[in-house]
Design a protein that fits this description.
By secondary structure, the protein is α/β, with parallel strands linked by helices. It folds into two domains: about 1-80 and about 165-258, Rossmann fold (3-Layer(aba) Sandwich); about 80-165, Rossmann fold. It has helices at about 45-50, 75-80, 95-110, 125-135, 150-165, 180-195, 205-215, 230-235, 240-245, 250-255, and strands at about 5-15, 20-25, 25-30, 35, 60-65, 65-70, 80-85, 170-175, 200-205, 215-220, 225-230. The strands form two sheets. The chain has a six-stranded mixed β-sheet, with helices on both faces. Strands 1, 2, 3, 5 and 6 form a five-stranded antiparallel β-sheet that branches. Residues about 250-258 have low confidence and may be disordered.
């Protein structure tokens, strides 16, 4: 895992005098699951918005696969294989799971504008769609409308639609937010499985999820990186404990209890 897929160098984002991101240098290795964590207002979402080009950095650079993509537009970055999931629900509630995945596949094959095509002409996408549903454990529900899914299974469907675009780097934005225990476990296992043959950068609040599946954790506070490394190392860092809970002793209990 020495191969670096994404690197940022001293990223800065100012909003009218307020610095949301300050000198953030990230290094994401190909084939790893890299988590971006930190208390509310730490700058995690702003970093994601900079990486996907929804925001332009005030200064600093973003290098992807050795190419400087700092000046590129969101569509260019997506075409390079950087795909973000969960910023909005990308699921059509009244369509079946199969149709949801097929639409995502149409986008990736350039057929997205051809909704007038006869359905049978798109049947060659069915096998691929079923394969993706199989990967996320939803094949048995292929004909169900998405609206009938539990929250966690809806997230699994969103992962399937993201995988349809065949991303080289998946950015997962709070994948387990608002979920019950069972759904959290299901989605955590799914991310670990999907991460076996691709690179994932995720923003996540749930420390148990991060402890279980992240190879590397970057901790942000007030827009700056205060620690980086595996969970065993980061979870013992006094700066991290203080950032989360105010005092190191309280924090240690909190970090392991949530």
């Amino acid at each position: 895992m020495t191969d670096v897929i994404l690197q940022t160098h001293k990223l800065v984002k100012d909003f009218k005098g307020f610095t949301a991101v300050k000198d953030v240098s990230l290094c994401v290795h190909r084939g790893s699951i890299h988590a971006l964590i930190g208390p509310n207002g730490a700058g995690k979402t702003t970093v994601f918005n900079l990486l996907t080009k929804f925001l332009i950095p005030t200064s600093g650079s973003i290098v992807y696969n050795g190419i400087d993509i700092t000046p590129e537009k969101p569509a260019q970055v997506a075409l390079r294989g950087i795909v973000r999931s969960f910023q909005i629900s990308s699921v059509f509630p009244n369509l079946s799971l199969m149709h949801n995945v097929r639409i995502a596949l149409q986008r990736s094959t350039g057929l997205s504008l051809h909704f007038w095509r006869a359905g049978r002409q798109l049947n060659h996408l069915n096998d691929k769609a079923m394969d993706l549903l199989e990967q996320v454990g939803l094949a048995a529900m292929a004909d169900l409308p998405a609206i009938e899914l539990s929250y966690g299974r809806k997230r699994a469907l969103e992962i399937a639609t993201t995988l349809a675009v065949d991303p080289a780097l998946m950015l997962l934005d709070e994948p387990t937010q608002g979920m019950g225990h069972e759904d959290v476990e299901r989605v955590t296992e799914l991310i670990a499985k999907v991460g076996q043959n691709r690179t994932i950068l995720m923003v996540e609040h749930n420390m148990k999820v991060v402890a279980k599946i992240a190879h590397t954790i970057t901790v942000l506070q007030r827009g700056q990186v205060i620690a980086e490394g595996p969970y065993s190392q980061v979870s013992q860092d006094p700066l991290v404990l203080e950032a989360y809970m105010g005092t190191p002793t309280q924090a240690l209990k909190g970090a392991h209890g949530h």
